[in-house]
Amino acid sequence: MKKLTKKDLLVPGMLLALGIVPMLGGLARLGSLSAPTTVENARFVAAPTPVVLHIVAATLYALLGAFQFSSGVRRRWPGWHRRAGILLALCGLLTGLTGMWMTARYRIPAELQGSVLLGVRMLVGAAMVTAIVLSWSSIRRRDVPRHEAWMIRAYALAQGAGTQALVLGPWILLTGEVVGWKRDLLMTLAWALNLGVAEWIVRRRTRAPRASATAVSPSRA
Questions:
Q1: Rounded Cα gap, residues 98 and 57, in angstroms
Q2: Does a structural domain hold residue 91?
Q3: For residues 14 and 10, what is the distance between their CA atoms, to the nearest angstrom?
């Protein structure tokens, strides 16, 4: 059996690096649930189940999902890819649904979530759930390219928190805390960047087989 190469682990490594900050933040949030109640954690302490489910599901989705995009891992352990895919679909659905629940039901201060960010979060959660459902229906029809395309989009949306750390981090270092409409726009920008990269990857993968077919057809003729 062919060994994994550095190239096989490059994409998973990059995706794990992108998600490390929100993963650590999630663990810190779980730890804060047992701390004395403050203004910052009051809403989570009052209703801990959604945030616990969200953090656990999102962490599993980010960790295991990163290796689903390695062609070397898929070739070496095809059975693992399928079994992990079932778990990841469930984790992705749970991540999107709990994200929407928290957005709508938690009393988040206006400086941390304005009307723009509220709407974007609801849209992102719904889009992620839709992408996973479409991906699942595609693989049941053995439509692998469409399955992969929708999973790429779903994972890109799920990794929004990682890109938000990259976008907000330098701003916070330069100006201090980011609140209000600036926070709304920067958070939205992170999701837009992820989705833009995802669409670029999907279109590039779609064009590649067409280019190969075009190159082969003259020789066949």
A1: 9
A2: yes
A3: 6
Most distant pair of Cα atoms in the chain: their distance:
75
Q: Which residue, chain included where needed, has tokens 């629940």?
A: 101
Domain region containing 25? 6-208
Count up the domains in the chain and report the number.
1
- Residue of 151, 127, 56 whose CA lies nearest to 94: 56
Residue-wise pLDDT for 104-142, tens only, equals: 999 999 999 999 999 999 999 999 999 999 999 999 999
| Separation CA 210–CA 219 (nearest Å) | 15
Q: Which token pair is 96?
A: 């999107």
- Does any domain span residue 220? no
CB-CB neighbours of 98 under 10 Å: 21
- Tokens 């689903």 found at: 68
Residues of the chain with pLDDT under 70: 1-2, 208-221
Cα angle 29, 118, 174; round to 5 = 65
User: Does residue 216 lie in a domain region?
Assistant: no
